[in-house]
Amino acid sequence: MSADKIQPSYEVSSSPDPDAYSNEPKNPLEAVTSYDGMTAQERFPNIDEKKVLRKMDMHLLPMLAVLYLLSFLDRGNIGNAKIEGLVEDLGLSNNQYNLCLTIFFITYSLFEVPSNMCLKLLRPSIWIPTIMIAWGVVMTLMGIVHNFAGLFACRLFLGVAEAGLFPGVAYILTMWYCKGEIQFRQAMFFSAASVAGAFSGLLAFGISKMDGVAGLEGWRWIFILEGILTVLVAFGSFWGLQDFPETASFLTPEEREFVLWRLANDSNKAPGGEAIESRMIQYSDAGSRVPLVEKKLTPWQSLKQVLSDWQCWLHLIVYYSVVVPLYGISLFLPTIILNLGYTSAKAQLMTVPIYIAASIASVTQAWFSDRVGLRSPFILVNLLFLVVGYSMCVGTDPKVKPGVIYGGSYLIALGVYPAFPGVISWNANNLAGSYKRAVGMAFHIGIGNFGGAFASNIYRAQDKPRFILGHSMELGFISLGLCGLTVLVTAYRKINAKREKELQDGKWDGYTREEIFDMGDKSPLYRYRL
């Protein structure tokens, strides 16, 4: 069946012609709604869903993973540069070094929400490569700084430039994949962070051998070469980065329609769970065939929705319990291992297997999480791994048993890296409406990344080699996350049960389809994913 013979009972909001972007930007899912109750197989008998997903994966994930690998590499390589002599050569005090770490996370956090607002106005293939070029230039300039002021300024602008990548990509993925597929893709994308950790150690080990080339120290070449690589990849991403499904040239017209149909009819029904059918509501306009269109919201209206939603704040607490340990390990792992008594070269290399193990664990856990349709049980296990890992580090003298600290570092990485995409996906799964989701995810990631500022200041030089303060603070954040997770799961269960009872009692009978549709994740038909 050819694409021009398809007569859908819903409307697609924007043309597959790329020139559609020349006018006012349109949301790919604004007006895609099915009313006839047909399944995907009935509506699209010639479409192989697995084949379409494979095409999407191949065209989206590799490029996004490379971009995030470079992002995480560029923000975290200062930890590798430190043990190669950065602090001594620039004459930095311990507090000055920590301030350079901290300022990155302040600007990074402040500019994430505005960046996602810009993403709603521009194509991803324009906005993301542009900010990538900006941070690549800043990273290169870090290689020629000569004092604290120069390094501080570079880290400040690096935070501004990098702010838009992660929340932007996390949001873009929700515009391509259904809720039950998203964590595996988020993990594939985020696993680049753990791979970046491994590459960072290997690259730092190799590049540091350039010490003295062109009269520059080895740590300067770490910044210069990795910055230049970022700029080169950014120029290629202008052509390699995809925008939204309705403009995807690698999909046929029928496949584009199929992808939009899947997203419009997606729900938080877990595999094997009981579906909640809209026929349970006796609509006052049940016979209407008028397409339901998501109302456009201003950025401030979307922000107001997010700030007034209780779940966004609880998800923020859970996020802190993951992001503070994440930045703690990414910024200070080389230093922690160095203080176990190893040389700087060996410390660089000993971080590599930890990150490789974390990358494998992230993807494996995400696959199982999507398979069973649950997030919270896996996140709980991750947090318990963190508790055990940090407890090993707090309770052990590295001079007596350095192997215990190194083993604890494995448990920390195996807990924190798989948890990160799980927490991001859980929050995204429970936000309905593309405008609220875009701002909600940026708020979640942006404000949550202030945790990096905490992590930058809790591992103090005077606390080496045990770093009891830093490890203990991490345990405190993890404990808060366990509390937040418990409250979220309890509340979600109660709300889901309440909505089911209200449907059965007919409380919402007589409402129009549009009134229920406009309620978003507050709709009686909406079920929070656990």
From TrEMBL:
GO terms under cellular component: membrane
Cross-referenced InterPro entries: MFS, MFS_dom, MFS_trans_sf
Membrane-topology descriptor: Multi-pass membrane protein
Region (Disordered): 1-28
SUPFAM superfamilies linked to this entry: MFS general substrate transporter (SSF103473)
Main location: membrane
Gene3D superfamilies assigned to the protein according to its UniProt record, in alphabetical order: MFS general substrate transporter like domains
Segments crossing the lipid bilayer: 126-144, 156-177, 189-207, 219-241, 312-337, 375-392, 404-426, 438-455, 475-492
Positions of the Major facilitator superfamily (MFS) profile domain: 60-499
Subcellular localization(s) per the UniProt record: Membrane
Keyword terms: Membrane, Transmembrane, Transmembrane helix, Transport
Molecular functions per Gene Ontology: transmembrane transporter activity
Domain of life: Eukaryota
Name of protein: Major facilitator superfamily (MFS) profile domain-containing protein
Organism: Babjeviella inositovora NRRL Y-12698
Taxonomic classification: Eukaryota, Fungi, Dikarya, Ascomycota, Saccharomycotina
